[in-house]
Amino acid sequence: MIAPIRWDGDRLLLLDQTALPSEERTREYTRWQDVAEAIRSLVVRGAPAIGCAAAFGFALAARQSSARDADGFLSDLEDAAKGLAATRPTAVNLFWALDRMRTVARAERGLSLADLRQRLLAEAQAILEEDVAGNRALGAHGASLVPEHARILTHCNAGALATAGYGTAVGVIRAAHERGRVAMVWVDETRPVMQGSRLTAWEMVKEGIPHRLISDVAAGFVMKRGEVDLVVTGADRIAANGDTANKIGTYSVAVLARHHGIPFYVAAPFSTIDASIPSGAAIPIEERDGNEVRRTGGRQTAPAETPVYNPAFDVTPAELIAGIITERGVFRFPYDFR
How distant, in Å, are the alpha carbons of 164, 195, 285 from that of 247? Predict the structure, then answer.
């Protein structure tokens, strides 16, 4: 199994996703500040993976702290949590994981600082292991929705690379492939950072899953030709009503799927559901550097002076989603996640 996040003795190891597919390079981290930069710069990306990495960043902050009492120690951890939380505003798993680590730190403050450090590392490892197990359960639920000889379209990367392992949307594809149900996967390239062509296609090759890469603008055409049986994507945050934030371009795919009568599914861990947000209108949308759009493959493709609007995510309304697949089962519109 592809393992993008690993703990090795006293350090965090991350598979550098900015180097894929041309190079498989692992980076080592011993400071939470460097983990924060890895999240910000997309060395690690995908909502569940960001949450796992942040949890280990929190554990590294515990190791970095030179405080001699619980109050100072917790203060250092809070500084780290704030720094890690400031990296990516849309993916709710980041905040969920940090809140879970904070809760453990406060509840166990009576331990010696050495024991508390070990307890926090164990919690980060538990978050990672639970993510892999949850993805496998999610994949099994999703595979039951996939017809025989299915042609599946996916957008962005919601595979092992976006999680602690196995994947969410690609986890569904992987589980369906293991059951012999997948004829072919259409992989959207997913501009402007190309997570589909760089990452999802790389995973398809690694897993031996039949696939074809298409430009984002070709999705409607292959649907019109009757060559797509279902769409499955991941999610970075799901509002209480089922509105879902995912990589920019997902909303367009959902609209196209509805027009062509193709079921559009979202696959995500239950922790991606943010019950505090009533609808997608309240989901914060990250805007990234305009050079991601002005440059493609290291080559300038637009004038440097041209202003750019570069939202990293969009929101798909709940009514366009045929089902939200989680490790707890499949939820359908109108959504009630209790």
Answer: 19, 9, 10
The 8-class DSSP code of residue 208 comes to T
Q: Which CATH number does the domain housing residue 204 bear?
A: 3.40.50.10470
- Do the strands 329-331 and 295-296 form a parallel or antiparallel pair, or are they unpaired? unpaired
- pTM exceeds 0.85: yes
User: Closest Cα to residue 87, out of 241, 230, 286, 233?
Assistant: 286
pLDDT per residue over 160-200, tens digit each? 999 999 999 999 999 999 999 999 999 999 999 999 999 99
Do both 123 and 238 map to the same domain? no
Stated as kind and residue range, the H or E segment containing 51 is helix 47-64
Q: Is 337 within the bounds of a domain?
A: no
pLDDT digits (tens, 9 = 90+) for 77-134: 999 999 999 999 999 999 999 999 999 999 999 999 999 999 999 999 999 999 999 9
- Is pLDDT above 90 for 297? no
β-strand pairing of 150-154 with 211-214: unpaired
Same domain membership, residue 266 and residue 145: yes
Q: Show which of 115, 136, 157 is a domain's final residue.
A: 136
Residues contacting 96, CB < 8 A, separation 6+ = 51, 271
Q: Which domain holds residue 286?
A: 141-331
Catalytic residues: 236
Residue 234: how many other CB atoms lie within 10 Å: 30
Residue 171 is assigned to a structural domain of this protein: yes
Choosing from 91, 106, 136, the residue where a domain stops is 136
Alpha carbon distance 314, 283 (integer Å): 9
For tokens 């589980």, the residue is 175
